[in-house]
Design a protein that fits this description.
- The longest helix has 16 residues, at 235-250.
- The chain is globular, with a radius of gyration of 18 Å.
- 20% of the residues lie in helices and 37% in strands.
- It has 2 domains: 5-105, Beta Barrel (Elongation Factor Tu (Ef-tu), domain 3), CATH 2.40.30.10; 116-250, Rossmann fold (3-Layer(aba) Sandwich), CATH 3.40.50.80.
- The chain has helices at residues 31-35, 86-92, 126-134, 179-187, 209-214, 235-250; strands at 5-18, 21-27, 45-52, 55-67, 72-78, 98-105, 116-122, 141-148, 162-169, 195-202, 223-229.
- The protein has 6 helices and 11 strands.
- It is of the alpha/beta class.
- It has a 6-stranded antiparallel barrel.
Length: 254
């Protein structure tokens, strides 16, 4: 397991990638300390540390990219107005602000020996999916099903791979239902050969897309699946839910 360390970096600049997706680029004297522990993973994540009236609170976010030469790293945030901690912080972040985080962690990276890469997710998974398609080798076959609010929320996904992107638009429907993603994946003409899948986003994906893929389509070792959020619950409620899921796996009730 990678050694984790706490560092504090400084905001260098921000960029709005889409109406609800903001990139914060960080650097500073502690960058080298982070770089010493950075992982060769496209879902590398860190736990952001926020001080609240109830003490420290941590939020998990993907490191979108690291530029060792420029001594910078980027984290992309989905913003929801004043909801939560990390989103509002990112929405108001400006050069000179600081951010503490612990990390890194993560293990997934597209396997170049797979015949096809499948990516499934909503906005919360866009940073990890974008990082993953960016490392695909020339000609690598890949398909992505990505759910966003509408056309204005689509982002560029640079890659050397042979990537087909299906943008699924909610068109005014509130985020949280995985029906669009589930239906799209089930309607997809399954490719020949070995498929590696990355399925991340709202928690219902674990009960919709995941069982479909694992029903003889994708080997257990070729699927990375995780919930990033849960519709209808607060961030703290989601963290409690995740702990319960982990406990159920560790101590099955049967």
């Amino acid at each position: 397991m990678a050694q984790k360390t706490e560092v504090q970096l400084t905001v260098l600049r921000t960029e709005d990638l889409a109406p609800r997706l903001r990139r914060v680029v960080l650097g500073g004297p502690a960058f080298d300390e982070y770089l010493a522990h950075h992982l060769d993973s496209t879902d590398t994540y860190v736990k952001l540390v926020f001080d609240t009236a109830d003490g420290e609170v941590k939020r998990t976010y993907t490191v979108r990219w690291v530029d060792a030469e420029a001594r910078e790293l980027a984290i992309d945030f989905v913003t929801h107005g004043t909801e939560g901690l990390a989103g509002p912080w990112a929405a108001s972040a400006k050069p000179g602000d600081t951010l503490r985080f612990v990390g890194p962690g993560g293990a997934y990276r597209p396997d170049p020996t797979a015949d096809h890469q499948l990516f499934v997710g909503d906005e919360s998974a866009l940073p990890a999916i974008a990082a993953s398609v960016a490392v695909l080798e020339s000609g690598a076959k890949a398909t992505a099903f990505l759910e966003v609010d509408g056309p204005g929320h689509e982002i560029d996904l640079p890659t050397a791979g042979d990537l087909t992107v299906h943008w699924l638009h909610r068109d005014g429907v509130a985020p949280g239902s995985t029906a669009l993603l589930d239906q799209a994946v089930r309607s997809w003409t399954w490719p020949a050969g070995r498929v590696q899948a990355f399925v991340h986003g709202e928690s219902a994906l674990l009960k919709t897309v995941r069982p479909y893929l694992m029903d003889g389509r994708v080997a257990r070792g070729d699927i990375s699946v995780s919930a990033y959020w849960r519709c209808g619950v607060t961030e703290e409620g989601f963290r409690d839910w995740k702990r319960q899921q982990q406990d159920a796996v560790i101590r099955p009730s049967r």
